Amino acid sequence: MQRIILFLAFLFICCKLTAQQYSFVHYTPREGLVNNRCRFIYQDSKGKLYIATYGGLSIYDGSRFTNLTTENGLADNLINDVIEMGEDSVWIIPNANKIHYIVKGQLRDFVPTDGFCPGINQLCKNNNGIYYALAEEGLFRLENNRFIKMPMDSIFNGQLIKTFLQGLQIGNRLYILSNPNYKLGCANLLVYDLPTQKLIACNNNGCITSLIKGYDNELWMATVNGIYTPGKIDEQSKTIQLKPLSTNWTIPKNLSVYSGFVDKQNVVWLVTPKGLYRIKNNEAALFTTQNGLITNYQTFVFQDAENNMWFANNQTGVSKLSNQQLAFYPYSEPGYSASDIFIPSSGDSVWLHDIYHHKLVVLFPDGNRKEYENPHEALPNLARFVSGKTNWLTCDKDIYQVQLKADHKHYSLSKFYHDSTATVGFSNAIIDRNGNFVAASDKLIVIAGKKILAAPLNYMADQLAIDKDNRIWVVTRKNILYCFEISGTGDNIKLVLLKKFPSIINAAMRSITADRSGNIWIGCRNEGLFCLHFDNIVRHSSRQITALNGLSENFISYLYCDNDDNIWACTPSGLDKIKRVNNNFLVENITRSNNIYFPILKIQQTANGIYWIMSGQGLIRYAPDHSIVNNWKPRILFSEILVNNRQTTNGTKSKFKYFENNLVFHLAAPTYVDERQTRFSYLLEGSGNNSWSQPSSNASINLVNLPAGSYILKAKAIFLHGLYPNTETVFTFTILPPWWQTTWFKLMASILMVSFIFFTIRFYFRRKLQLQIMQIEKKQAIEKERTRIATDMHDDLGAGLSRIKFLSETIGMKKQQHLPIEEEITSIRTYSHDMIDKMGEIVWALNEKNDTLEDLLSYTRSYTMEYLQENGIQCKVKEPDSIPDLNVSGEFRRNIYLTVKETLHNIVKHAQATEVFIVIEINHWLTIKIADNGVGIDNKYLVRTGNGLPSMNTRIQGLKGSFMIENNNGTKVIIKVPLDV
To answer: What's the distance, CA 798 to chain centroid?
Structure first.
């Protein structure tokens, strides 16, 4: 199946190579850039790229683009300059009289102390740390947050001094480009002396396009006629002459240069109408659309901290060249096809086989090539070439010897072996360490000298491998691994099967290679790459590498071990380099990182370390330059934090309310060698999960519905290519609990609960004590009432009974003496009636059924009317229409009744009244007013005589009431008692 795929792939490609193409990576609005018309690029100390465009500012951190426009607060979408002013503070200069700055992820406005801001085109920092603003209005110095205009004439040597575009400090002089008339592509040169703060010279030829900082702090000027440097200043005319750049540079003469750049490797890059020139080691190379650029005209050249080259243009966005050592040679002419690529051991020449024209093509290290033709012998199928002591060619079931002719133009084939019993053709052939030819189909064939050795494999084998001990390892599509050894010499040479490993890997095995550490690497159809460690031929351990670890994909079609013991995996999606460091496997995507997305079929390495890679669209030459030293170490950053999908100030807020518990953290680890090889993992301490998340290319962490608590978010960036060590960062934050779960609330609730329990218990025991006291008081009241009843019965009934007894004895004595007894009988009758009344009063007072206010007033009113009527006194009673249903105590009833009774008795006995007026009022008090029309009472008499009035006063005071007597046209007694007694 694989042979058919390879054949069809090469059926439509061609072998003849065109000019090399470089692997540019392009960034456009499709990738997230804010606008395709780019002006320049700036990188801050954290590694973030600021791409200024005509349509806003894009901030690229390797994971995503953050775009700022007027909708986000910019004063203008056209960005003139970007400069880092301090730790986490980047100034943005828009094309307006305004300055913005970004601090902790927030865009803010810088307001000078006097409110004045010029229209700045460039902000320069001199060697003393002073900032100069090159503006439309002139030159300004930033001092104490104010822009101070530097003294400068408006006309110098007849030249209008206005509209400063670009400045560059060389020594103590600031060289300024001025374009006062806004002429397109033309600018004058001004020389400003910083110590004296004076303009000392100018050049107004108007042909300068930009200033370039060249070698050794030298000033270069790009002009429409080439590169110039400043000459001497004429003191008299105050002009400065321009002189051509030294002829030591291989720069084409009279070349129109728009701008330029000298990188850290002293490579010169020049932007010209023809394209982008690179001058390295006095060798000039032109980059155009023919070798990878999207457009020939670039506006800006920039080198980042990792030595990647960036090119901005105002048409198609930004292009990146991260690997200048990788060049692609596409097949150009139809009718040509390379079926194989082979580099002999310890050789530097590359052999290609052209199946359609039956040619062998040799590419020499010096760039020359040689072609060997064989027009008479047509091979019917895909052929593979290998070279050892003899040159060999395999095709289908045949093995040919290749003889190169002496004319160096032709070759011939002689069939050496034909396998008539094979079910499949030869898919792979190699040369072992002794120069023997080894090939595999459904059997293993070894050609040692003129002897042919064979061993059955029983199924198709795709690739062979020779280990460090010259053993042969073969995998078949039936998932069987074989290990063979060639033993003996001469006629005694044998092919010996050392061991057979059936189903050593539960996967569809396709490719195999061996490294120098005793490991056998096996590539599979869908399960990635396995590293099997053998001690002799005893398996000890195995490791698996998949796309999760950084592979381009899990189908490994071809494996190769290079001179540095690195493993190269060819896949339908690209080429990967696997390097083992401290028992860790580092995966570098060689082709994908360079924007090459072709199926990779085979790779070979020359003795001088150059790799030749055969793809589905042409050849790739990769010459790693180990001389480039890169000290950059990316740091992982929390580029943005969202709380409930709203941005928060980055890194300053670490406490969130209980409803702010949906957090999104955007991570970044600025590196641009291959951004897609960066993986992120995180661990959230405090969540109960103590395991790191599975590394992922997703640079966002979503935390949803976090409960209240303290958390430590640890984030880690893993660089699968191994160029940088892993880096970690920490963000500590707290989700505050709701107020009902706060400590103070719980404390207050606990206090209230304890207080409630305390007061409940206290109330219970106090109530219990009160009930006990009430029971005691009730018992005491009963005892008191009993005592009172006994006293009343003794005083009232006892006295009456004693009188009746005395009168009865008197009657007996008078009967014996025959004296009249009517008077005594009348007295007995009177005393009996009094005793009956008093007994009724006592029973009425003791009956609980009468414990209502209405019963009290009814009984008292009945007694009053009856008593006064018996004594011939008229009585009028005024009382409320309705009497409240209130209970009163027996003592209350008795004292009120006896007080009224005593008052009526005094009226009958002393007042000589004919009428009595009684008024009853009920509110919160019971008020009884008793008035007569009698003679009244002398107040002096009240004080010195009788016990009745003091007794009544005592009774009413005992009820917490008042007893008053008014003497005015009769006597008025007022009884007032509270009803809650």
So the answer is: 103
In tens, the pLDDT along 802-846 reads 677 776 777 777 777 777 777 777 777 776 777 777 776 666 766
**Assigned token pair, 845:** 């007072």
**Which residues are paired to 359 by β-bridges?**
354, 373
Amino acid at 502: P
DSSP conformation letters of 122-156: EEEE-TTS-EEEEETTEEEEEETTEEEEPP--SEE
- CATH classification of 34-253, choosing from 3.55.40.20, 3.30.2280.10, 2.130.10.10, 3.90.850.10? 2.130.10.10
Number of Cβ atoms within 10 Å of the Cβ of 202:
22
| 645: three-class secondary structure by DSSP | coil
* CA atoms of 680 and 701, how far apart (whole Å): 9
- The predicted pLDDT at position 430 comes to 93
pLDDT score recorded for residue 949: 80
Q: What are phi and psi of 954, to 5 degrees?
A: -65, -40
Q: What percent of the chain has pLDDT over 90?
A: 41
Cβ(278)–Cβ(256) below 8 Å: no
Q: Which residues contact 595 (CB under 8 A, 6 or more apart)?
A: 23, 24, 25, 26
- Strand ranges for 648-708 from DSSP E: 655-656, 663-668, 678-685, 700-703
- Euclidean distance between CA atoms 668 and 378, whole angstroms: 57
| E strand intervals along 95-137 | 99-103, 106-110, 120-125, 131-135
- pLDDT tens-place string over residues 743-773: 888 889 889 999 999 989 988 888 888 888 8
Say which amino acid occupies 126.
N
- Choose the CATH number for 637-665+676-738 among 2.40.40.20, 3.40.50.300, 2.102.10.10, 2.60.40.10: 2.60.40.10
- The encoded tokens of residue 869 equal 């009527």
Residues of the chain with pLDDT under 50: 1-17, 945
Report residue 696 as tokens: 């992922």
Does this chain's domain 637-665+676-738 share its CATH topology with 852-981? no
Distances (CA, A) of 609 to 116, 367, 460, 478, 605: 61, 16, 32, 35, 6
**Would the CA dihedral through 796, 799, 803, 805 be positive or negative?**
positive
> What does the domain layout of the chain look like in residue ranges?
34-253, 637-665+676-738, 742-846, 852-981
Distances (CA, A) of 577 to 551, 571, 722, 825, 964: 9, 11, 10, 146, 119
Write out the two tokens for 436: 């023997």
pLDDT of residue 7: 30
Which of 266, 258, 260 has its CA nearest to residue 283? Answer: 266
Question: What is the average pLDDT score of the chain?
Answer: 85
**Class of the domain covering 852-981:** alpha beta
| DSSP code, position 696 | B
Sequence-separated (6 or more) residues with CB below 8 Å from residue 256: 223, 224, 225, 226, 272, 273
CB neighbourhood size of 34 (10 A): 24
- The rounded Cα 774 to chain-centroid distance in angstroms is 71
How far is it, in rounded angstroms, from Cα 411 to Cα 400? 12
The angle subtended at Cα 566 by Cα 561 and Cα 572, nearest 5°, is: 70
Residue with tokens 């009348």: 826
Q: How far is CA 610 from CA 287, 586, 623, 901, 920, in A?
A: 22, 21, 5, 137, 128
Q: Would you state the structure tokens that stand for residue 200, as one six-digit string? A: 């000392």
Token readout for 396 is: 């289908």
455 contacts 444 by C-beta, under 8 angstroms: yes
Query: How, if at all, do strands 600-605 and 709-719 pair?
Result: unpaired
- pLDDT value of position 941: 55
CB 710 within 8 A of CB 678: no
Distance (Å, whole) CA 575 – CA 385: 22
Torsion of CA 782, 786, 788, 790, to 10 degrees: 180
